[in-house]
Amino acid sequence: MRAYVSVGTNCEFKLSEAVVVYRAGSGGAFASLHRVKQADDEAPYLAPGEPLTTAFVHSLAQGLGAQVKPEIFPENILARTPDLLVWWLPPQRRVMFFGGTDEEARKINGLVFPHPALVFKVMGKDLFVRAVATSLRPRPETHLKTAPYWNTDARGLVCAGSMRVPESSDIASIPGWEGSYFQSDFTHAAGAVRLTSHPGGFIGLWRSLVGRRRFPVQYLTDAGETLQEFIALGSER
User: Fold this and answer.
1) What is the pTM of this model?
2) Phi, psi of 32 (to 5 degrees)
3) The pLDDT of residue 64 is above 60
């Protein structure tokens, strides 16, 4: 395997420190920082270890490009870290596209439907979505609902399919994520997940919503987690 590093300019790098990671069989771990010493005409060696400080880790992360530019948070942002972005979308009407082989789904392809309030989560290139039964901004203890959409599994993970995923996951990319999600084709159920309690099932639900103004939240199913838990599943990775 070959690895390449692009630094954008000509510069000389010298070995200066090494981070040594110790792991226990139980899964625990700690790290120490070692200065690199070298006498004349001798191989470099590691000095005794020092505690790894937060300042050093922060400096290292900045050097590796793992930093978030200052951003002003709009009201729809629920959580933000360098690796995670979570926001919510109030109830609204949108066009939906249905693909795949289901003839009944094709009959309602490209029509406008009401949608419930939604919570989106982006981690890297992965998109997750949950529904909310109210139109209020969700709180940490708010119980989430299963998003009533094909291409979405029990965890809320979206099968990208025909989606054109944005290159970034900053706040400015939110319209791109939402647009990619709703402009792609919903084609199939993703695993064993109950998307709705509507007596007519998934197709029956969306067929009944043609021309309606509001989504009937009584047909949403429980996702079995709060907003806090939904966010934590990403931040613990």
Assistant:
1) 0.74
2) -135, 155
3) yes
